[in-house]
Every structure is written in C-alpha cells, then in structure tokens.
C-alpha cells in the first residue's frame, strides 16, 4: 500500500479540537495543497480565506447557528482555524473545483498530524446578511459564494474509524485467495522440513496485538504532540527535555496489557519443536518472550528493562508506568528505558548474534516490516540461503529477491501454518 493510500485511509473528521493555534506555516501548507488541486476547466478561480483566530472562528460559527437553527453548542467543533474556500458566483464548475481543493487540504492536514473537518453550513448561509458581513470582514470577496470550509486544529479527541464497505469482484477475491492458499501451503512445506528457521520481524507483528505501528499514518506519527515523535524519541531530546519525553513515552510507547497474537505463539511453538533457532525483532514490547520464545534478539531494546544512568540499578517497567514526571533512582540518577533512541547505536553483541543466525539459516522469514528502518533492515543481506520468505501487508524493497512473498497480515498467515 502506498503512503498516499495510508493517508487516505487514516483521515478522520475531527469532532473535538484543542484551543491552541497550529503554526501559521502549517496552515499555509494546507492552503498550498488546496491550490494544487485540479480545476475542471483550468480557470482556478477559487479563493482561500484563512480565519486564524479561535475567537473569530467561534463568532462565525455562532452567526451560522443563529440563522440555521442550530443549538448553543454549535461552534465548528471548537476549531481555532477555519479555511474558507469560495468561488466566483455563476461559475458552473465551482462546486467540483472547490471539493477537489478541499480534499487536498484535508489530506495534507492528516499528513501533518492536524485534525480537520469539512464544514458545509457556510455554503448554505453565506448570503444571509449577518453571515455575509463577517465573511466580508474576514476577507471573502463579496462576489464569491462559499463552497465549503475546513475546521482545522490540534485534535482533542480521536474520532474512531468506521468500517468501510469494499466492493470487489468475487472472482478476483477467489483467485487471490487461491493464490495465497498456495503460497501458505508452500511455506508450510518448507517449515515442516526444516529445523533451522530464523524469523526477522517488525512493527506489523505487534500491530495485530493492538500496539500502534510507530511509522504508519495510523500510528504514532499521526498523533499530535508539541514535537514530532522523531524528535521526542532522540537521545538529544531525552537529555534536554526528559519531562516531555516521559509524558510521550508513558502515553504512546507502553502497552503493558497487550497479548501475543498468532505469529508470536507459532514462533514460540516452533522453538519448542526445535525448528526456530532465533527471533530477531525490531519491536520493544516483549511479546515474543511473553508467548514463550527464549532466543529473542531485540535490536532496539525493550520497554520492559529500565536502568539508572548513574548507578545502573535495574527497574521494572511498572515502576515507570505508574510514576509521573522524570523517574528517579534512589541514588538520584535518572532512570532510562533500555530502548535504542535516535542517535544511539545498536548493541554490537545483539547485532553480531543476529548476523550469525541469519547467515546460517535454512529459512529466513521476514514478517511485519517494510524494511525501511536502517541499520536493522540491512541485516537480511547476510542471508545466504535459498528460502527467503516475506510476509507483509504491503510490498517491500526486498520482494524481488525473495523466494516466496505473501502479502497478507502475518497473524492470518501464521495461524494457518
């Protein structure tokens, strides 16, 4: 699945906004995205008016509410910014062009981690004098009609996803199912005949246990914080802003109630049977061990381990989860999670053991990873065998060199092995 498709599928209409104004630079990015929308006859006669004020946005919402018989709670969901798309009156393609511009704007908002909501009420009320007076005051040309507007701001409450009905050809589904059944049968045949399997896994293994994918649009990069997660989860930020680091860390990186899924359980079963030699994982949740696997090489560490940076005293993850602020050791030192942050090196012992297992494996199964995170993703280059298996929902850079590729959720595949 492309990044654009992930953005499209992750977009939600926000129904509760924070009062804080997003940076003007981000708002202008939304306008720029809207300006790049196609115009039906190439006229591009739309106009974008940015109401960059919670007070002004509220005032406009109340003016609409008074003439449109809406209740006292109507306030554009509390959005501090309203971007109005208007068009010259009398242009027959205005609504189509305006809708295209709005879609670009909303998708860019999702990409930037902002909440957004399509507002139609201004279109219906823009010619009523009390509303028109405010529109003119805010900069909407008097000869324009409002096509729609976007309420924009930081998300105060996530809108749950609604199931979408997908219309597909039954015949195509049958063929796809038959093809996947054959691939799974081939993998099962290989597994049954081998006693030297190594598994290399990524975030997709954990998402099926309810843990957000760190890099997907549905994941943590799409959550709104003062700083982007790439910055927060860096060594520099940890040292400079530990309070903000642990606020994010406790809220988004700990999933202590998560349980192993079919993939975790199957790998542990293979290890007990003497088939799986090692699990090499990019995940930090400890679910492989929870499922019963013993030889687990955690490339990026584990949230379950924590230690004092001064005296090296170990601490349980429950101590971190239950506390507030920056956790401190009895010696006064700061307690740090044993996870590899940006700017930090991977553990050389773990790397060397992983390379040894991968290089000598009969079967290397790569699951639940797009192979986009380096240097971890480069470890598969050490595999010298002829049974390289890729199990992932979407394509990866290694698909072409693989001996067997299955595009499906890893839990679904492993439950059939």
What does this structure look like?
The chain is α/β, with parallel strands linked by helices and 417 residues long. The chain has a six-stranded parallel β-sheet with strand order 7-6-5-11-12-13, with helices on both faces. The relative contact order is 0.11. About 2% of the residues have low confidence.
Task: Please provide a brief summary of the model.
This protein is of the alpha/beta class and 417 residues long. It has helices at 3-10, 24-35, 54-67, 94-111, 121-125, 129-138, 170-192, 203-207, 229-232, 235-240, 242-252, 262-272, 287-291, 317-322, 348-359, 410-414; strands at residues 46-52, 81-88, 115-119, 144-153, 197-201, 276-281, 296-298, 301-308, 314-316, 335-339, 363-367, 388-391, 404-406. α2 crosses α4.
Low-confidence stretches: 215-222
Which geometry do the CA atoms define? globular
Strand order of the largest sheet: 7-6-5-11-12-13
Count of DSSP-assigned helices: 16
Task: Summarize this structure as a short list of keywords or feature phrases.
417 residues, alpha/beta, six-stranded parallel β-sheet, four-stranded antiparallel β-sheet, 16 helices, 37% helix, 17% strand, globular
What order do the helices and strands come in, and which of them pair?
Layout: H1 3-10, H2 24-35, E1 46-52, H3 54-67, E2 81-88, H4 94-111, E3 115-119, H5 121-125, H6 129-138, E4 144-153, H7 170-192, E5 197-201, H8 203-207, H9 229-232, H10 235-240, H11 242-252, H12 262-272, E6 276-281, H13 287-291, E7 296-298, E8 301-308, E9 314-316, H14 317-322, E10 335-339, H15 348-359, E11 363-367, E12 388-391, E13 404-406, H16 410-414
Parallel strand pairs: 5-6, 5-11, 6-7, 11-12, 12-13
Antiparallel strand pairs: 1-2, 2-4, 3-4, 8-9, 8-10
Helix pairs in contact: 2-4, 3-6
């Amino acid at each position: 699945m492309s990044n654009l498709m992930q953005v499209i599928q992750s977009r939600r209409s926000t129904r509760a906004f924070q009062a804080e104004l997003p940076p003007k630079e981000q708002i202008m990015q939304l306008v720029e995205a809207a300006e790049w929308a196609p115009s039906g006859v190439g006229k591009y006669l739309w106009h974008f008016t940015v109401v960059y004020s919670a007070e002004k946005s509220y005032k406009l919402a109340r003016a609409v509410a008074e003439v449109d018989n809406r209740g006292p709670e109507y306030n554009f969901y509390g959005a501090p910014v309203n971007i109005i798309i208007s068009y010259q009156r009398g242009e027959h393609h205005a609504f189509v062009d305006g809708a295209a511009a709005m879609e670009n704007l909303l998708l860019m908002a999702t990409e930037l981690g902002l909440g957004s909501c399509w507002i139609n009420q201004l279109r219906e009320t823009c010619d009523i004098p009390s509303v028109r007076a405010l529109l003119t005051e805010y900069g909407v040309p008097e000869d324009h009609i409002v096509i729609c507007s976007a309420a924009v701001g930081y998300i105060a409450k996530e809108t749950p996803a609604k199931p979408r009905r997908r219309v597909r050809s039954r015949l195509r589904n049958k063929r796809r199912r038959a093809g996947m059944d054959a691939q799974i049968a081939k993998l099962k045949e290989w597994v049954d005949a081998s006693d030297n399997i190594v598994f290399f896994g990524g975030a997709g293994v954990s998402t099926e246990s309810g843990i957000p994918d760190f890099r997907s649009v549905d994941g943590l990069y799409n959550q709104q914080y003062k700083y982007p997660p790439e910055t927060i989860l860096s060594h520099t930020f940890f040292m400079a802003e530990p309070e903000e680091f642990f606020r994010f860390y406790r809220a988004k990186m700990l999933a202590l109630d998560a349980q192993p899924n079919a993939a975790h359980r199957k790998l542990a079963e293979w290890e007990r049977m003497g088939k799986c030699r090692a699990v090499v994982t990019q995940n930090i949740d400890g679910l492989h061990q929870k499922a019963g696997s013993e030889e687990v090489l955690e490339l990026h560490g584990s949230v379950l381990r924590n230690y004092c940076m001064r005296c090296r005293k170990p601490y349980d993850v429950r101590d971190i989860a239950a506390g507030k602020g920056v956790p401190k050791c009895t010696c006064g030192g700061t307690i740090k999670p044993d996870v590899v942050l940006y700017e930090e090196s991977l553990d050389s012992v773990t790397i060397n053991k992983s390379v040894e297992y991968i290089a000598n494996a009969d079967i290397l199964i790569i699951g639940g990873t797009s192979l986009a995170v380096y240097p971890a993703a480069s470890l598969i280059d050490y595999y010298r065998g002829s049974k390289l298996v890729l199990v992932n929902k979407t394509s990866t850079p290694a698909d072409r060199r693989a001996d067997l590729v299955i595009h499906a959720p890893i839990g679904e595949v492993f439950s059939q092995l």
